[in-house]
Amino acid sequence: MAQNLLKQTYPWIKTPLIIGAPMRLISLAPLAIEVSRAGGIGFIGSGTDTSTLEHILLHAQSLLLSHPIPHSPPTTLPLGIGFINWGASLPLALPLIARFHPAAVWFFAPASLASLASWTAATRAASPATKIWIQIGSVAAALAVTRACAPDVLVVQGTDAGGHGLVRGAGVVSLVPEVADALSALAAEEEGGKAPMLVAAGGIAEARGAAAALALGAGGVVLGTRLLASPEANIADGYRKEVLRARDGGQSTVRTKVYDALRGTTGWGEEYNGRAVVNRSFVDAGEGMGEEENKRLYEAEMEKGDAGWGVEGRMTTYAGAAVGLVKEVKGAADIVEEVREGAVRVLEGLMGEARTKL
Amino acid sequence: MAQNLLKQTYPWIKTPLIIGAPMRLISLAPLAIEVSRAGGIGFIGSGTDTSTLEHILLHAQSLLLSHPIPHSPPTTLPLGIGFINWGASLPLALPLIARFHPAAVWFFAPASLASLASWTAATRAASPATKIWIQIGSVAAALAVTRACAPDVLVVQGTDAGGHGLVRGAGVVSLVPEVADALSALAAEEEGGKAPMLVAAGGIAEARGAAAALALGAGGVVLGTRLLASPEANIADGYRKEVLRARDGGQSTVRTKVYDALRGTTGWGEEYNGRAVVNRSFVDAGEGMGEEENKRLYEAEMEKGDAGWGVEGRMTTYAGAAVGLVKEVKGAADIVEEVREGAVRVLEGLMGEARTKL
């Protein structure tokens, strides 16, 4: 999908395109719809458990029926669905994709490249209007995925992203341009070859980061952590409060496998971990506490409800390195508009400076 | 130093400002001068050993005498000097600063905040025309350093940077905006308070990254890794070749303390490590080889000369996550011009798109 086809494909959007990340269990129908309603593309975070997806999609459909999004096409749902493919069920997902025709599916962390190709082919057959978005975190994966699946959009995730991603990686400042160059070279190898559109994810929470992502060559900008502080996000108050508290995101968050271990999440490949706010469990693990004891304390902490989050708590606060830029709760639609319009102002300001000062 | 004072302070520069990082042992007089000659600011990498600095400055002075930089002021050297403060000698540095009047000093990794304040005060007393640049990698450090030293420029180093920096950190996409906001808030606390200018370092090797850094709020852009592939950089051919070979920078480089240990560099604080290309020593360390054996193999490898670098080699290739964007050897002045002019074109292109498509 060339960038200039974006508005043909998604007629309700405004550019620069702001995308709501498919945060598992957090981005459900209300959040995804608000992002799309504001001219972005919202993604439902279906994650690893496809059994609840029909219910979520029916909810989305009913919300949209009573309050449609202007300019959204009659035949597709103006939303995407995000799958964590190593856990998601293709047999459960496929009939839902065929029935609801989401605007996009977003694939991430497949068990194998072959399985990713199967998901892609099956989705295209079931719903030709549904665009294929695939998330990668390295140049090697960008090339492999493009060869195997010819996705419409590649989500280029930098290592500043919250939640799961590659253990080892680069920030978007290096990764997006290197992926763009590698894909251009790949496209040039084939007659009529066309590189997928890139969207940037990881460490972007406001207008300056969004403007930077566009400068790096992205055709859209993904917000995750920032949307945690919207009332539409399906998260505990304790979690949201911790997102608002954390500052100095490169210091207060860390990439680690500790939280997966405590939560009993065992399906992620060796190459993945997750970025979250440092808490007592992480510090204890670093100081040598055994996993069993740490897990017991984590499970006991769950009894505390919202008080279980925080720097001395043990509940996991998945969040990106941009968490320090998230300072207030704001409606998801307002966030999308603020970031989109702010990014344009940042770029206009720079060009104004350039005209007077260069 | 407000951004609009930049050209008053450094009359030979062109904006957007491109800065050559003070790479220890690598950025000596020839590289620093070429960066400044192209309208940037080049820094000599004096590092931890101040005993060679007089020789380097005399060399710079003689090169500049025979081939002056247009518009450079008669009383200051149109170059900066970078110190790694935990190792550098203030008694040796101070008379040289007083004698040569460098345009800037760049301080990094002091033994303490008090020592940093001493270096700052002594430099200002010895050479009022010399601007104080201080490198930080966190919001906390930005605030502490600004309170203690009121630097003219803060170098905001993201975790994608090559060579030494903080073990835990954020990319410039998150770090630069969060530092900018924190410093604005600090400046607002005091009457007439003025935030230092920010320049961005880490993961930037070409025009798109430079344009992104400006969008993030930086008033200048630091190149390090990219300049390793200039003929003016004082590095072994094997090192330069490895920089050109490495691709997929987030995967081929890693932040680690292994290389310091092998090289016997013991002065860095616990909070620092270095980003370098993955090689045999790193892999062996990860697979459990003892430090003594690994060091013995490293020292034997030194006999091999240029053949000691590479993925199966043991010589250290310090480089940032943008290393995959470095594909050819090019003169330092050409690199500076290409990145500066390219960044403006990137921004103009985005605004052109915005005008037709928004």
From TrEMBL, chains A, B:
Q: Which CDD domains match?
A: NPD_like (cd04730)
Annotated keywords: Flavoprotein, FMN, Oxidoreductase
Pfam family, any one:
NMO
Q: Which residues cross the membrane?
A: none
Q: Per its UniProt record, what SUPFAM superfamilies does this chain match?
A: Inosine monophosphate dehydrogenase (IMPDH) (SSF51412)
Gene3D superfamilies linked to this entry: Aldolase class I
InterPro entries with a match to the protein in the record: Aldolase_TIM, NMO
Any one GO molecular function term: nitronate monooxygenase activity
The source's domain of life comes to: Eukaryota
Q: What is this protein called?
A: Inosine monophosphate dehydrogenase
Q: Which organism is it from?
A: Mytilinidion resinicola
